[in-house]
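Page 47, continued from p. 46.
Same chain as before, 139 aa.
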Amino acid sequence: MELTCLLIKPDGVAEAHIGHIITRIEKEGFTIRGLRLIRLTRSQAEAFYAIHRGRAFFEDLITYMMGGPIVAMALERDDAVEQLRRVIGATDPTEAEEGTLRARFGKDIGVNTVHGSDSVENGIRETLFFFPVSPSQGG
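Result:
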């Protein structure tokens, strides 16, 4: 079993897509191991997206992610990262395959409704960002 992280971004929350996205995720065989609604602070958004610091879109991304609550999910299944990437589709919704979450709900490359981890390592890192394991939880 593999862990990955899915975020429903502010547009997905504001437009009431949470239930549709969770239903799709569960139908695809993912087990939800953690779920929380959170409004990111600037420091949290900058820390989560630190890999993009210095890129032209960084400030717009941070502002967008702070623009409203998000839903963070820790998901588990075999080959979770690759399977989630298949379900969410290409970053640009106009290039996403029909039936993917971004093709269905995304507006453009900057407002694309969901984030999914892009590697096994990032799946673990991003999951721990939102769902840290304390020593009392055994980790």
